[in-house]
């Protein structure tokens, strides 16, 4: 390779050449022509079969419990056969409503090998929200933990399609109480349902097509009712290939061992499995590639540091705030974190300064940032290694099978391939097309017509591309503030505020103004023991931002910002609370 590393374009061209494992080809998927991975596995059943090759290595570690790859495979296979005996057939919806538990993973794999559609529901939903998800999806079987079971038990009579409930318990020495259920609903404990597991158990023989649905992932629902995004087997295995390609391309350009020759990778899973990042970007690839998945009951930065040391964790990730909380822990230097070789995050824009902070704190690690959505089955692009340090405000170039378009606000067409101008200075809505874009929303024809045209997903994110194809997410369209006719992108303002040494967290939103339409408000959490005035923040960002971008209202909070289970700031809640305070004043 010489002293000069390959450019990202050169490395990509080498890796996708004919005969290479990452060779691409054109194909028609659901009537839409697109680029796909030629050698991708056909379905998730094949990925599960790959996991068996990792034998007696640890696969799942949770609060003292350990399950090896071969042990998990036999349990998942047995669970799949039990579901078939129950009457589950391809296309049936099988829901999971539970916190991260080993049984969650088993329930997922046991469901998908039957050809069923796994429906991971948000474990933090209320009773009404869980009932909505179960009813909307038409799930016939529900895997549920004790806490969620108690939450929905009184509402079971509202769920006409639900016939079987399988209850997980965190404490296997204390069986979950089942209570009474409506007539016609079978309720059974998880391990009783699994029963005896044969040493040679294999999944049921079911024909699974690459473009069959495999998961229904509900969107976060920050506005209106959540929508069930239908992911296919192709979507999930394409995401697996995207992530593998990204790791290999970085190794090709900047050095590093081949994935297959390294000791077992291990990762700390500190985001929910019901989120597409936790499931499709973390757990599924780990199963296929032999990675150890270490789960926590709930995220705590001090406990995370202890686990990193004890389990020799090689990868940590999630949303940027998780990385920042680990870095900011007062006892960070007391733990051995030398095993960490990869720090990856997405789901929210990271402050540009985070890249350098991570490089200093984890000198042996490579940090990376990515971008994806529930509707893209996780990853669309990734920015890692020296590229990330050079361009910390970018989420990287799109993977080779993804098509990207920056669409002007006034564009009225369905397919921007040939008639949309391209320029590094062009800012517009990001549209995405490729084999990991979902085929649509479950029973939501109006939303489908708005969000998907000719295979293109209209993301609602405002972005730009530089001359190397690196994507910069400028803002969520709904988070853009229009102040006196000027567009203010909250991500840019937040990045400037994060550079202040006393700021540990912040969010920028628009609030009503009688003459300007909106004004810029910043809600800030300071580091412990720090006290500053709003004028200090304004002075700090004035050197970095245009005058119209400088916050005119600065609110300091002593409590954390409101976030959803994926770690994203609930700006709707912030706007509502600010509106109340403004009205009261």
Provide the descriptors you would attach to this structure in a database record.
six-stranded antiparallel sheet; GMP Synthetase, Chain A, domain 3; 585 residues; eight-stranded mixed sheet; 26% strand; Rossmann fold; 28 strands; 17 helices; alpha/beta
List the helices and strands and how they pair.
Layout: H1 8-15, E1 24-29, E2 32-37, H2 44-52, E3 58-62, E4 65-68, H3 69-86, E5 93-97, H4 102-112, E6 117-120, H5 127-137, E7 141-145, H6 146-152, E8 164-168, E9 186-189, H7 190-194, E10 213-218, E11 228-232, H8 233-254, E12 266-269, H9 276-289, E13 292-295, H10 301-311, E14 315-318, H11 320-328, E15 342-345, H12 353-361, E16 366-373, E17 378-384, H13 385-390, E18 396-397, E19 403-407, E20 428-433, H14 445-451, E21 452-453, E22 456-465, E23 470-476, E24 481-483, E25 486-488, H15 490-498, E26 503-513, E27 517-526, H16 534-542, E28 553-557, H17 571-584
Parallel strand pairs: 3-13, 5-6, 5-7, 7-8, 8-9, 12-13, 12-14, 14-15, 15-16, 27-28
Antiparallel strand pairs: 1-2, 3-4, 10-11, 16-17, 18-23, 19-20, 20-22, 21-22, 22-23, 24-25, 26-27
Helix pairs in contact: 1-8, 2-9, 3-4, 8-9, 11-12
């Amino acid at each position: 390779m010489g002293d000069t590393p390959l450019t990202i374009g050169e490395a990509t061209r080498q890796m996708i050449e004919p005969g290479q494992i990452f060779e691409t080809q054109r194909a028609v998927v659901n009537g839409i022509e697109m680029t796909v991975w030629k050698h991708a596995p056909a379905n998730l059943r094949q990925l599960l079969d790959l996991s068996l090759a990792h034998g007696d290595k640890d696969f799942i570690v949770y609060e003292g419990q350990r399950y090896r790859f071969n042990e998990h495979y036999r349990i998942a296979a047995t669970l799949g056969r039990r579901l078939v005996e129950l009457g589950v057939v391809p296309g049936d919806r099988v829901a999971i409503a539970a916190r991260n538990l080993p049984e969650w993973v088993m329930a997922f794999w046991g469901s998908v090998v039957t050809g069923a559609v796994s429906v991971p529901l948000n474990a933090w939903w209320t009773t009404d929200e869980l009932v909505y998800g179960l009813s909307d999806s038409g799930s016939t079987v529900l895997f549920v933990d004790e806490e969620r079971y108690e939450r929905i038990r009184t509402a079971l009579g509202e769920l006409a399609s639900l016939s079987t409930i399988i209850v997980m318990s965190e404490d296997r020495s204390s069986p979950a109480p089942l209570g009474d259920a409506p007539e016609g609903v079978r309720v059974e404990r998880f391990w009783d349902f699994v029963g005896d597991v044969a040493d040679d158990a294999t999944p049921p023989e079911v024909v699974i097509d690459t473009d069959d649905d495999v998961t229904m992932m509900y969107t976060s629902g920050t506005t209106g009712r959540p929508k069930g995004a239908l992911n296919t087997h192709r979507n999930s295995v394409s995401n697996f290939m995207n992530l593998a390609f990204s790791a290999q391309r970085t190794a090709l350009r900047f050095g590093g061992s081949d994935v297959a020759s390294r000791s077992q990778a291990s990762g700390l899973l500190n985001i929910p499995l019901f989120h597409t990042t936790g499931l499709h970007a973390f757990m599924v690839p780990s199963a296929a590639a032999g990675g150890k998945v270490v789960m926590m009951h709930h995220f705590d930065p001090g406990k995370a540091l202890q686990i990193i040391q004890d389990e020799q964790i090689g990868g940590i990730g999630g949303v940027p705030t998780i990385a920042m909380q680990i870095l900011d822990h007062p006892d960070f230097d007391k733990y051995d974190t030398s095993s960490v070789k990869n720090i990856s995050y997405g789901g929210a824009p990271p402050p540009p300064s985070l890249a350098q902070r991570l490089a200093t704190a984890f000198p042996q690690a490579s940090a990376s940032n990515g971008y994806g959505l529930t509707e893209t089955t996780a990853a669309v692009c990734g920015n890692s290694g020296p590229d990330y340090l050079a361009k910390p405000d970018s989420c990287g170039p799109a993977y080779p099978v993804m098509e990207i378009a920056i669409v002007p606000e006034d564009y009225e067409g369905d397919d921007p391939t040939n008639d949309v101008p391209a320029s590094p200075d062009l800012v517009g809505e990001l549209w995405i097309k490729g084999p990991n874009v979902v085929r649509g929303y479950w029973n939501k024809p109006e939303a489908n017509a708005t969000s998907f045209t000719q295979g293109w997903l209209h993301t609602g994110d405002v972005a730009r591309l530089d001359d190397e194809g690196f994507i910069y997410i400028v803002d969520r369209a709904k988070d853009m503030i229009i102040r006196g006719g000027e567009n203010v992108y909250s991500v840019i303002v937040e990045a400037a505020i994060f550079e202040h040494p006393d700021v540990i967290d912040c969010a920028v939103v628009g609030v009503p103004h009688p003459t300007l339409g909106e004004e810029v408000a910043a809600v800030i959490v300071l580091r412990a023991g720090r006290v500053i005035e709003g004028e200090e923040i304004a002075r700090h960002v004035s050197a970095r931002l245009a005058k119209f971008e400088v916050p005119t209202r600065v609110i300091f909070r002593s409590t954390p910002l409101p976030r959803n289970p994926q770690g994203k700031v609930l700006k709707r809640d912030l706007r509502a609370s600010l509106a109340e305070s403004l009205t009261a004043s």
